[in-house]
Amino acid sequence: MEYCSIYVTAGSEKEAAGIGRTLIEEKLAACVNILPVTSIYRWEDTIEQEPEVVMFVKTRASLADEVTERIKSLHSYEVPCIVVLPIKQGNPDYLQWIDESTRLS
To answer: How many domains would you assign to the chain?
Structure first.
C-alpha cells in the first residue's frame, strides 16, 4: 500500500475545518492537520501577503485524485493550492491506521 500527505492552503480555519471534516466523514482521509501560516504570493500581477491556514491531509495514494477533486469542489479559492506529497516511509502502525480509517479506492 502507498500513502501520501496532501498539502492544501485555505483562507480560514473555519473553511479548512469544514473541508477536513467532510474528507474524514467520507473516509477519503484518515487525518487532517490544520496550522496557521502567512502566505506571500503573486496574484493578478500584485504581490499579496495574507494569513491563511495549511492543511495536511493523510490518505492512501490511490485516493489522491478523488481527494483533490473533492477539495476543489468544497474550496472557496479560484485556484486552490493542492499538492500531493508521497510518504516514502513511516511508522507501520500509523500507516496501518490510515488503511483502517479510509475506504478503498
So the answer is: 1
**Which range of residues forms the domain containing residue 38?**
3-101
Q: Where are the alpha helices (DSSP H) in 26-80?
A: 64-74
**Which residues, other chains included, contact 14 with Cβ-Cβ below 8 Å and sequence gap of 6+?**
none
How confident is the model over 13-28, as pLDDT tens digits? 999 999 999 999 999 9
Query: Can you read off the three cell numbers belonging to residue 26?
Result: 467520507
pTM greater than the 0.85 cutoff: yes
Burial 5-40 (b: 16+ CB within 10 A, else e): bbebbbbebebbeebbebbbeeebbbbbebeeeeee
CATH of the domain at 15: 3.30.70.120
